[in-house]
TrEMBL record:
Its cofactor is Zn(2+). This is GTP cyclohydrolase-2. The active site is at residues 130, 132. It is an enzyme of class 3 (hydrolase). One of its GO terms (molecular function) is GTP cyclohydrolase II activity. Its EC number is 3.5.4.25. The lineage of its organism: Bacteria, Pseudomonadati, Pseudomonadota, Gammaproteobacteria, Alteromonadales. Keywords: GTP-binding, Hydrolase, Metal-binding, Nucleotide-binding, Riboflavin biosynthesis, Zinc.
Amino acid sequence: MTSTSQQYRFVSAAKLPTRKGEFTIHAFVEDSGTEHVALSYGSWQPSDVVPIRIHSECLTGDALFSTRCDCGFQLERAMENIVAHGYGVLLYLRQEGRGIGLINKIRAYHLQDSGMDTVEANEHLGFDADLRTYDMCKLMLDKLDVHNVELMTNNPRKTAALKDLGINVVSRKPIDHGITNDNKHYIRTKTEKLGHAFDPHLFKD
Ligand SMILES: Nc1nc2c(ncn2[C@@H]2O[C@H](COP(=O)(O)OP(=O)(O)OP(=O)(O)O)[C@@H](O)[C@H]2O)c(=O)[nH]1
Ligand SMILES: [Zn+2]
C-alpha cells in the first residue's frame, strides 16, 4: 500500500502471551525503517465490527509506568477491553511523542516542568502540536481482515483519519481511564487545545 511518501509491508506474525491474555503479534515495516506492530486477539468474520485501539508509542507511559500522561493506563485498559470482548486488535504505532520522538518529548517535558503546556512546549521546540499520520493503519487492518471497527479513543483526528482511509468506523468507545493529579493538566490541554473528547469534570481541580 502506498501513502503520499511511504510504503508499508507485513513481515511476520507470532504468538504473544501477555499478562492480559494470549495475543498474536504482527510485524510491519515502513520503507523508512520504522517498525509497527498489531496485536490481535481471538477471531472474527470480515463483516464483524471489531473493537480496535490505535495506540501511539509512549515509552515513558507504556513501559516505565509514568503518570505524566494517560498512555500506560489506556494501553492496559484497551487490551483488557479486547480480551473481555473476546476479540479485537491493538495497533501499536511507533510515533513516540506524537511524532517528535523520545528525546524531543523529554525536551518538551523539561519545558513543561517550567510551566508550558504540551502544545506550547512542542511549538517552542519548532514542532506542530501533533505530527502523527495514520496511513499505515489501512494496510495493517486489511491484513487482519478488519473493515468495520469500534474505535477506542478520545481523539477525533483518529476517527477522521480512519474514515478517510475507507475504514468503516461504526462507533467510538471513550477511553478515559488513568486520570491522575499528575496528568490532569495534560488531559485538560488535550481537551481544550487538541479537541479530545473528555468530560471536563474529569480534570477539574
Ligand atoms: N510531544 C509530546 N508528546 C507527548 C507528551 N505526552 C505524551 N505524549 C505522546 O502522546 C502520544 C499519545 O497521544 P495522546 O494525545 O495522549 O492521546 P491520543 O493518542 O491522541 O488519543 P487517545 O486515542 O484518546 O489516547 C504518545 O505518542 C505519547 O508519547 C508531551 O508532553 N509532549
Ligand atoms: Zn504517554
